[in-house]
């Protein structure tokens, strides 16, 4: 198939192709893992499981019928799509990816393909995906759907009760013809324009099966991007491993995905949230390597975000309000990581993300091959700017005695000429 040859790296062409431009410019996304596992919150049948709570059925070996019965208690009456999107906006994310169906096989949308969905199998009876799509459209934020296309613990042919499951009895092709592909069609037909279909864990899908998913998405919505976890080297952008940042600059369209605490799905006993300082620095580090950070929130069974997630995301958004120019629409840093922090670039501007100010206040930027025009604090510019001095390819900037933000103070350096291309992985 012709279209199946659209490998992410080639198509993205330094991350600036027309189709992926919104994505490579976005830099910060919000991943949402939400399903019946949020209602369990890491606690099922009287047993507690720390971390990866969306895997609770598998870890607890809960039989599918029993899981379905318990899932019938899921009733997120406090869910408010507009509230979620308001928090997302205030956090500075440019796209949201919601789990439309995770490995437990439960559809968070009104599906005609399977009754194991929020409308038919819970007292909630409404379609939260519909509400979220409407709120995102209104707010001008891109929406994507996570969809587990290979594992489905509710269906024997999707893996079923995999702890005692005989893979030889699994007929994946029957599963994807009768559930995965039809549900993908529903998602791409009933919820307006989508930014992303985020496939996950392709297992041992064949190249033809991966290609069929990719083609189905592109056929129904040509502008919708597909994650590389559709399998077999296909997809419109690349995802690294869960919680993984590549060791250096990577060209093309890509994303690093992180949990906010130690779980994707909501956990009632995990308060190990990344602080705004950690989030802001991680975002800068990923941008300095040329990628997006998609960070997760696990909304609660009630439909609300955990307080700490909301608070820390909003704080990150407040930083972005003042420093977003150094993140959105930038490319990887022309200068490699330094003892003081990392850099991002756009034509004529080099952004210096300072995590640790040098003791003597003299910020060294080695390998600076362009001609500096002016230097200033991005969030708190002064009329005269900062003093700088260029000796050959060493640029030294005199910083103020106290930097205004000990999490990440950005200095913007305007320049003429060209900076070298960093080595890419
Ligand atoms: O949706 C999130 C994860 O649930 C999903 N990808 C992200 C985005 C994912 N699917 N598979 N994995 C992650 C790998 C998971 C492996 C493990 Fe386990 C699950 C390790 C511990 C629990 C299963 C049970 C394998 C070992 C024990």
Automatic annotation (TrEMBL):
Glycoside hydrolase family 29 N-terminal domain span: 14-325
Any one GO molecular function term: alpha-L-fucosidase activity
E.C. number(s) listed in UniProt: 3.2.1.51
Annotated GO CC locations: lysosome
Transmembrane regions listed in the UniProt entry: none
Biological process annotations from GO: fucose metabolic process; glycoside catabolic process
Keywords recorded for this protein, A-Z: Glycosidase, Hydrolase, Signal
Record's function text: Alpha-L-fucosidase is responsible for hydrolyzing the alpha-1,6-linked fucose joined to the reducing-end N-acetylglucosamine of the carbohydrate moieties of glycoproteins.
Similarity remark: Belongs to the glycosyl hydrolase 29 family.
Official protein name in the record: alpha-L-fucosidase
Whole-protein residues included: 34 to 458 of 614
